[in-house]
Write a sequence for this structure.
């Protein structure tokens, strides 16, 4: 007998920054009920699917999600009740058609994603299967994390413009060992920040350190020192990733680094990034250029794609159409995959598949506004993407995902492939 959707119920909850988002419960015909919670970003790309906010300034400064919840509890429930829950593609197609807009602005991508994920989780619980198995189309892989250690930009509110300075702990025998090393490097980074006399202004949005550094480059020097002082080999065991998130400091055709009192053209930004890959073990650069600077992206790709992962976040916004254009025009070589940038699970998988066939790497990513839901860990594993970006290793909304990966390694016997990171992903195997 087929498993159908019996009920959907959404309500407003708060994310890790105290801003409203949604929880959605799906109940199936066999009585199974499961809930999913929707993430929310701060450095959002213009081309992202629309996160519907109430705009009623008397509540949560206009950021309420009561309308999005009412769309689930009204039109979406009416259309999906009785629908086959096990056909995720058909569920998502029905959601997309009901919304009927290119950026999901009618019902809200937050409403659609909550339903898409809640139905998937309810099916996995009904089958008594781990979620990654229900989502997987074969070849599940425990991902290598890129972990935020230092934050700037819109996430930290301190001095520097670049948003994330992260480490990739790939040279370890297991995910658990890699995580232990990461915690050690995070702690050493904190000691170095204090020792070098920087003021620590508290943790940033994703749990990383957010010091008032003198320059963007100072973060790279600090991170490299933290890797070494913690007793690891930069490059062999631990590499560096950065998320420049450059769209927020690009205005009138130039990139303005206020902290360094200078502006850079697109070509100068490319030169700066190239020079950093030579001085530091930087192997991955996200949003190095503005989301619509296609010429700049092409130049950056020509110069660095051979041995550096060039990751499009705001640039691609997990959108198959934008990724297609990137592949066709030789821009970037990797895509950041965020479910809520596109709004349904099916489209998220579509982007991962497109990346694979275009020889682009994929990194499944959390948002700066997260919840205690660990869905992302199973999603990253199910896609076989091989990489995950969650934030730092403090704060429970992040740890929910890191801990779920520990569980997948310990209880479900998934093997970690960290040692293949450099050769597979950067050596061309992933592309
Ligand atoms: C990013 C994400 C996560 P946000 O830019 O990659 O770090 O941030 O969710 O604010 O877009
Ligand atoms: Mg980003």
């Amino acid at each position: 007998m087929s498993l159908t959707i019996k009920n959907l119920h959404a309500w407003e909850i708060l994310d890790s920054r105290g801003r409203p988002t949604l929880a959605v419960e799906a109940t199936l015909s066999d009585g199974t009920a499961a809930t999913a919670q929707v993430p929310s970003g701060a450095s959002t790309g213009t081309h992202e699917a629309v996160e519907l906010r109430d705009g009623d300034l008397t509540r949560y400064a206009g950021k309420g999600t009561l309308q999005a919840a009412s769309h689930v509890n009204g039109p979406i429930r009416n259309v999906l009740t009785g629908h086959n829950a096990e056909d995720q593609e058909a569920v998502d197609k029905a959601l997309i058609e009901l919304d009927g807009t290119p950026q999901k602005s009618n019902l809200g991508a937050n409403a659609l994603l909550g339903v898409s994920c809640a139905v998937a989780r309810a099916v996995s619980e009904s089958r008594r299967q781990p979620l990654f198995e229900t989502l997987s189309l074969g070849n599940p892989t425990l991902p290598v994390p890129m972990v935020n250690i230092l934050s700037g930009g819109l996430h930290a509110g301190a001095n520097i413009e670049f948003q994330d300075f992260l480490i990739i702990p790939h040279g370890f025998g297991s995910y658990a060992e890699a995580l232990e090393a990461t915690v050690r490097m995070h702690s050493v980074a904190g000691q170095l920040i204090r020792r070098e006399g920087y003021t620590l202004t508290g943790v940033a949005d994703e749990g990383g350190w957010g010091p008032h550094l003198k320059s963007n480059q100072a973060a790279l020097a600090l991170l490299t020192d933290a890797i070494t002082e913690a007793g690891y080999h930069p490059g062999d065991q631990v590499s560096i990733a950065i998320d420049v998130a450059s769209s927020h400091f690009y205005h009138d055709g130039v990139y303005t680094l206020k902290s360094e009192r200078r502006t850079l053209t697109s070509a100068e930004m490319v030169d700066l990034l190239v020079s950093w890959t030579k001085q530091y073990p930087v192997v991955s650069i996200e949003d190095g250029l503005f989301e619509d600077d296609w010429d700049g992206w092409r130049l950056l790709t020509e110069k660095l794609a051979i041995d550096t992962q060039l990751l499009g976040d705001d640039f691609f916004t997990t959108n198959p159409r934008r990724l297609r254009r990137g592949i066709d025009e030789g821009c970037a070589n990797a895509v950041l995959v965020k479910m809520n940038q596109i709004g349904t699970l099916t489209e998220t998988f579509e982007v991962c598949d497109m990346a694979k066939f275009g020889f682009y790497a994929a990194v499944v990513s959390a948002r700066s506004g997260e919840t205690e839901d660990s869905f992302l860990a199973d999603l990253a594993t199910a896609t076989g993407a091989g990489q995950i970006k969650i934030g730092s290793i403090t704060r429970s909304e992040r740890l929910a995902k890191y801990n779920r990966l520990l569980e997948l390694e310990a209880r479900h016997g998934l093997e970690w492939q960290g040692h293949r990171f450099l050769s597979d992903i950067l050596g061309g195997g992933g592309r």
Summary: Residues 175-195 form the longest helix (21 residues). The pocket of magnesium ion (ligand 2) is lined by residues 43, 243, 245, 286-287, 313 (CB under 6 Å).
